[in-house]
Amino acid sequence: MEVWDDLRRGARAVVDEGRRLGEVARLKAQLALLEGRRQDRLADLGRAAMELQAQGTLQHEGLTAASSAVAAVDTELAALQAELAALTAEAPPATGRSCRGCGEPAAGGDRFCRQCGAPLQGDA
Ligand SMILES: [Zn+2]
Fold this sequence. Notes:
By secondary structure, the chain is an all-alpha fold.
């Protein structure tokens, strides 16, 4: 029966394609894993090289430039972290409202008390 042969061929093609896609996904995942591992090892290597350079054991023009670039990024990182810390440590703006249950001051958009969770009235 020609119809059955066609169906069987079609089914086999679908199975083969599924297998191929599965293999592609497996290889891509393995690639990503290895690339990540490579980046980690390169970072280790870079840290070791920077240490040797700082000790004066290793002198190389490219290494000096790379170390300065890392130091510049470190400075930017520290500034951003300080900015973030200042923002997150900031107390919520006072509104004059406070919780009727516990007296905790409420911030502008608060609908519930930050301290005890009680619902805040519009003019609590
Ligand atoms: Zn409260």
